[in-house]
Amino acid sequence: MTPEYVEEGEAPVVVDGDAPVAEAVTVSKVPSFVEEGRPKITKVEIVCKESRLEPLKNAMMGIGITGMTVSHVLGCGAQKGKPEYYRGVQIEASLLPKVQVDIVVCAVPVASVIETAKKVLYTGHIGDGKIFVYDVEDVVKVRTGETGYDAMQDVE
Fold it and tell me: Shortest CA distance to 153 belongs to which of 141, 136, 138, 135?
């Protein structure tokens, strides 16, 4: 939501709901990085076990993903890491090694990426992972200067 601004010298318009069309307030479009008709760009971030990276990578390549960034990360979720016991006493939670896979998609449907990742990562046990989805305002390909959808294409 953006705040409404009144330019100096312009009196605020009182709206009572019964204004004729000729007196209606004009609607102005709020500027946006996403242009009309341009495909939406989305970042999908997947955090999963290191052992599932290779099957995930192969599955993503199978649905048309042409690039991804993988980072080794440490973390724990609501389960506070796998509970460990020593002589019957639970020991402190520890950070578990995971991988974070970042994929930015434009031509490949986001739902397809999510469903494929869920199929590959699911074991039914705690720690299968999480999938986060973000809107991307723009993409710039440094080598060519292309932006948006064109920067996402891997055509030489």
Answer: 141
CB 53 within 8 A of CB 99: yes
Residue 140 DSSP class: B
From its phi and psi, is residue 127 left (phi > 0), alpha (psi between -120 and 50) or beta?
A: left
Token pair for 115: 């469903």
* pLDDT, tens digit (0-9, with 9 covering 90-100), for 39-49: 899 999 999 99
| Whole-prediction pTM | 0.67
Pairing of strands 89-90, 41-48: unpaired
Contact 134, 45 (CB under 8 A): yes
Which residues touch 113 (CB under 8 Å, ≥6 apart)? 44, 60, 63, 65, 103, 105
- Whether the CB-CB separation of 148 and 107 falls below 8 Å is answered with no
State how far the Cα of 52 lies from the Cα of 115, in Å rounded to an integer: 15
Q: Which of 153, 57, 137 is nearest to 101 (CA)?
A: 57
- Residue 112: burial class (beta carbons within 10 Å; 0-12, 13-18, 19+): middle
pLDDT per position as a tens digit, 113-134? 999 999 999 998 888 899 999 9
